[in-house]
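Two proteins follow. First one:
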Amino acid sequence: MLMKGITLRGLEVFEALAETGSVATASEITGLSQPAVSQQMRNLEKALGIDLLDHARRPMRLTPAGRAFRARTETVLGELRLAQSELTVMDLSDLTTLSIGLIDDFDNDLTPRLVTILAESMTNCRFRLITAPSHEINAAMRERSLHIAVAAHSGELVEGISEHPLVDDPFIIVAPRDVQCDPETVMAGLRARPLLRYDRSQLIARQIDAYLQRHQIDFPARFEVGSHLALMAMVARGIGWAVTTPLGYMRAARFHEDMTVYPLPFGSSSRRISLFAATDWADRVPRDVAQTMRRLVRTQMIDPALVRLPFLRGQLRVLE
């Protein structure tokens, strides 16, 4: 049994304050008023009998006890959110076939969880799943070889295809760890290194090139790499730098200690990840799959990314 005074809302407030150190920002994240945020935090610390935050500092900082408690809190809230996403899954027991295409950015964490949820619901259904880059997923959707697709939005409106936005995935710069420079002058600091590009056939490459051209950023096209993980490995080895997204960066977790991340220097730009379905498909199924995807993306990818890259708060976000 939990101690009296420890509530789920109190844990959510503590999580937000631990990440931001700001009552005002925690208020925006939790939807509570600032006095309510402060009261929830006081109640939690009183119940535990110890200070979790140094309230005298601005922004507030975790105490040693707070750092230990935060690790446990993230685990508890993560499991509760995952359980919530599993409970909201749709009833697919009447379907006989379902073909889904998923962007390969989700391979590591999200796809296995989604497949587990769907397989438990689709007990009498023949299930087909493919993972591929966005341009291949979008092409398969146009050819109607998939019922549902999750991919980056290409900017084109395709007749007979409905869109359910899932997440705003902003572009970021990843550079070798030994590149240390001010974010505002990062482009000058990268001049000595080659730009590592995604293969130009990929949608993400075209979107990144459009941003660079808009801001007249010109680097020699010495490397084009088709594999995302190979691109991240090359950055980590110091060969060059790249423009990618937080979802792509989080997929390459084993290289994080050898990379530095910077925001784009000339204002933010992002790609939109959406779920697509044929408009003649029953609305309930794509809508409910999209909602399950949003919950999984938030718990498995966005929340961990914002802990590591807090400057992306407000940019990397679920689209309801």
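Second one, unrelated to the first:
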Amino acid sequence: MFCTTIIPTIGRDTLEKSVLSVLNQQFTAGDFEVIVVNDSGVPLPEAEWQKSPCVKVITTNKRERSVARNTGAALGQGTYFHFLDDDDWVEPNFLDEMYRFTLKFPQAVWLYSGAVLLDERNHKQIELFSGAQGNGFVQAMSGEWIPLQSSLISAKAFFEVGGFNHSMKVSEDLDLCRRMGLRGDFAGLSKPLAFILRGPNWKTSSDSSQSVASSLRTRELILNEPGVFQRLVDSAKTSYWRGRVTRFYLASIIWNLKRKKILPVISRSFFGLISIPAAGWSALSGTFWKSLRSDHITTTIERDTPAESAT
């Protein structure tokens, strides 16, 4: 089984389009399956796609997306997991393109394509492509968004990091991306193969007001992991990204001081100090210090208007 697509749903009308975008794939190099996880609390209306031998429908009964996705993954047989929301869809050649991409990067734990963000009328708003390649840990820790909808994630690596964190109600995808980036490499294909429906009036199940706090929380948890500092240093290839590494630790010092957590403050202070000589000649550049002082501006979003600030 090459791929398992897992679609958690709250019963949106767009579910059928999401499922059919996978079932109608022009892909013959391997097997694939779709697991629809009904988390709506009520039975799904009967539909023709439910009769497909490639589809399984299971129920988690309002346990939120992380539980729904992990439940689907536990039943999945694919070498790779593809997490698609019930209001998003993929191109008919998504699996074919991504399959050939996995052959080029068999060691990558997270492979992804570009994605298109659409409004409620299916009009293109922006294109998304983070550009993270190889060790992209520093980009993930900076908040660069690699959409699940356009990604294939190694099932083996997914279980090794523990899957989605059930305690995360928002930013659970970013948390997973960071934990995967700590342990393995990314590979990105710039061609847009996934479509994400997110207009200004679109009703989302996420509480976006909690996203910044949740992002900071997951970053704190990951900074406690062994090997984080070296992985960050190894991933920071330019003066800008080396400045980000130092900023992570300085921001963490402030975060922990506010909560009177002395031991983390001591640890972060140590690594924050040694991150400066670890940056080498970059520590003498203006780019390094500007990066340390400033908010990160995402490179994921491609559009005509100025880029938005990322966490």
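SUMMARY FIELD: Strands lie at 3-9, 32-38, 55-59, 80-83, 89-90, 110-118, 124-128, 151-154, 186-197, 301-302. The longest helix spans residues 239-258.
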